[in-house]
Amino acid sequence: MKSKLLFAAWLCLASLTASKAQEVQTIFKGGSSVGGFGALTNKFTTIRGEYANISGVYGGVYLNHHFLLGLEASAVTNDIQVPAEFSAIPGRTLSYQYGQFGMVNEYALGSNKAVHAVFHLFYGAGFTLQYNRHQDEDYFYMDLGPHDENWFFVVEPGVQLELNLFKWMRFSPGVSYRSTHGSGAKGMSDSDLSDWSYNVTLKFGRF
C-alpha cells in the first residue's frame, strides 16, 4: 500500500514538472502594465510654403508605461487656396484639403517622471484634393468637389517634451518632420507637402 502511494505521488510530481516545462513563454510577463490613452493634437506647419494648421486625434494601447501602439487621423483646418494655374475648374477659386491617417507609435523615456522625452512615429496614408470651400451661391449648381483626388504614403517621426500635469493628463509640445512619397496632384508635389511641424498635444488616459 505504501509503495502504491509513493508511486502515485511520483506520478503527480512528474505531471506537474512536465506541465511547468510546457508553459508558453511570453514577451510581456504577468507583471506587465497595460493602459491606454487618447490625444488631441495640433500641428503648425506649411504646405506649398503657406501656413497650414493640422488638427488631429490619436490613441491606443499603452504598454509597460513606455510604448504606445495606436491609430492617428488628422487634417488641415484652414483655407489653402489653389493657384489659378492648378485649379481643377478653370476660372474658379478652389481650396486644397490635406489629411493623413494610419498607425502611430510612441516610446517614452522615464514615463513616470514629471518631465520626460517621448519619441513619436506616424506612418500611413495621406491625401490631397481640391474643393469649393466657400460654396458661392452663384455656382451652387456646379460640382463642389472633391477634384484632383491624390493619395500617397506619409511617414512623420518626431520628438516631444512631455509634462505629467496629472496622473490622467499629459501636455506634450514637440517637433516632427512630415515626409510624403508618391504625391502626383496638380501643384502638390512631395516637396510641397513635406516640411517641419511644431506640435502641441494633450493626452488623457491611463498611463
Question: What's a quick, concise take on this entry?
Answer:
By secondary structure, this protein is mainly beta.
List keywords for this structure.
ten-stranded antiparallel sheet, 56% strand, 207 residues, disordered N terminus, mainly beta, Porin
What features would you describe in this structure?
With 207 residues, this protein is mostly beta strands. The chain has a single domain (35-206), classed as Porin (Beta Barrel). The protein is built from 2 helices and 10 strands; from the N terminus they run H-E-E-E-E-E-E-E-E-E-H-E. Strands 1, 2, 3, 4, 5, 6, 7, 8, 9 and 10 form a 10-stranded antiparallel sheet that branches. The longest helix has 20 residues, at 2-21. It starts with a helix and ends with a strand.
Compute the number of structural domains.
1
Low-confidence stretches: 1-14, 16-28
The tally of helices reads 2
In angstroms, what is the radius of gyration? 26 Å
The proportion of residues forming helix, as a percent range, comes to 10-25%
Number of strands: 10
Mean pLDDT: 87
At the third CATH level, what is the topology name? Answer: Porin
CATH class placement: Mainly Beta
Order of helices and strands: HEEEEEEEEEHE
Largest sheet: 10 strands, antiparallel
* Class based on secondary structure composition and strand pairing: mainly beta
Distance between the termini: 59 Å
